[in-house]
Amino acid sequence: MATVKDQLIMNLLKEEQTPQNKITVVGIGAVGMACALSILVKELADELALFDVMEEDKLKGEVMRLQHCSLFLKTPKIVSGKVYHVTANSKLVIITAEACQQEGESPPNLVQHNVNIFKLIIASVVKYSSNCTLLIVSNPVDILTYVAWKLSGFPQNRVIGSGCNLDSARFCSLVGERLGVHPLSCHGWVLGEHGDSSVPVWSGVNVAGILLKNLHPALGTDADKEQWKEVHRQAVDSASEVIKPKSYSSWAIGLSVADLAESITKNLRRVHPISTMIKGFYGIEDEVFLSVPCILGQNGISDVMKVTLMPEEEDRLKKSADELWRIQKQLLL
Question: What positions carry a catalytic annotation?
């Protein structure tokens, strides 16, 4: 007896169901789910895979939350699993998984703990998606992007850290707030190491091509009576301000990651401040990953912009590079 489906539909072609634009998210915590939802809303993938080693019921519940949105989205297939086969044939793999710091655990031990986690993740991802681009979101993002590059054997253009993409967005938002201008019309970069030691490039901050430094030469310095340095401090501190009452920060990170994913999947060749290997730039001689403005497209990072930095900005970048290299030399890969 014919099924309802057989009576309704006449199949004309046996199609090979291989995704053309598959995106995988590894690590389905608050950040991973925010990335997944943002990617779905932007309609960037024809298949979205979620991978985690969490309990089966919890993982099933998370993917069901997204599958139940199918009527409002245009991603035809959402899958999940605890085995890496679910990640196969991905075009882009986003890694958000990271170890939680244990009580009394030192920062170096925490970094090594994350390295040990990455050894399994990267080897497994590469096995099933050898031509993918890796987008690292896990912290410390610059060090773990270096680790992913070393472990994967991928060319550096295909291993990217989310870096200062969100830091720069927060920075522009706060500049716009001060000026009463929409953040899209405020242009400025936060470069270097993601976090406290990031470098605001005050020399390039502009609105409609008008450099704020030309209007106010003391901009961003200790002599600045308007205290514009506070804008960068607020941008750096904003994540911890969100985390204090909620215990995590996710939505802005998810949208920032989806912004990067869009440039890759649609080959937009937009410029983003993201973490890439910068040996040979600004007098840096070691293999470290820091955020600089990069052109991002279907092949990952195709070009790096030659930004002219003030001497003090370049010095801060070098200082970050030296500290990262000091930590990286001690890692057991």
Answer: 194
